[in-house]
Amino acid sequence: MSTTTRLITADELLAMPHRDAQGNDCRLSLIRGEIKTMSPTGVTHGILCAKLATELSIFVRENRLGIICGAETGFVVERNPDTVVGADVAFLNREQLKHLDNREKFAPFAPDLAVEVLSPSNTVNEMDEKLAFYFAAGSRLVWIVNPKRRTVAVYRSTVEVRILSEQETLDGGEALPGFSYKLSELFADE
Predict the structure, then answer these.
(1) What is the CATH number of the domain that holds 141?
(2) What is the residue range of 46's domain?
(3) Of the N and C termini of the chain, which has fewer Cβ atoms inside 10 Å?
């Protein structure tokens, strides 16, 4: 005997309460129609996300390039079945904003730049899958921040990667020309 699980759509995910079976707040993603529950993050994760979002927001606003999103903003990166992933920080350029009809819903595309800060629960396979989703859906740049190693992996495709140490400077590449941020500032213990 087999059972069939009904696949969930992006719109159904958006309408769901973000609570686990015990009623605790949690983060959800949708991978090919199946809900995945993620635990809340630690303080270091939040600090790094806030620092990057702040620096990016200042640069993007001053140069009128688009918007910066944080707090696990959802992006639909596949349809039928739907896949919705949440970026820790994301940049949407002005052209993308023209196609964002309803800001109360998930963005119907991948961000131009996606930033992921690793948590202890993240697996290599999970991050590889997320990278593939982002680039297949049109992202031009993905940064993966590793708090333990104090590095940032800069992906320009799923196979083109450069690992930056905390002595180096992060740049915005083609997605954000002119942006730079010293990683010593990102990883500074304040």
Answers:
(1) 3.90.1570.10
(2) 42-186
(3) N
Structural domains in the chain (count) = 1
Burial class (CB in 10 A: 0-12, 13-18, 19+), 113: buried
* CA dist., res. 120 & res. 46, Å (int): 13
Q: Quick check: is 32 in a domain?
A: no
- Give domain status of residue 72, yes or no: yes
Q: How far apart are CA 60 and CA 127, in angstroms?
A: 26
**Residue 132 within any structural domain of the chain:** yes
pTM (predicted TM-score): 0.84
Per-residue model confidence as pLDDT tens for the chain (190 residues): 444 467 777 777 777 665 555 555 556 666 776 777 666 667 888 899 999 999 999 999 999 999 999 877 889 999 989 888 989 999 999 999 998 888 888 899 999 999 999 988 888 888 999 999 999 999 999 999 999 999 999 999 999 999 999 999 999 999 999 999 999 999 998 5
3-state helix, strand, coil in the chain (%, to 5): 25, 35, 40
Q: Are 69 and 90 in contact (CB under 8 A)?
A: yes
Q: Classify residue 28: in a domain, yes or no.
A: no
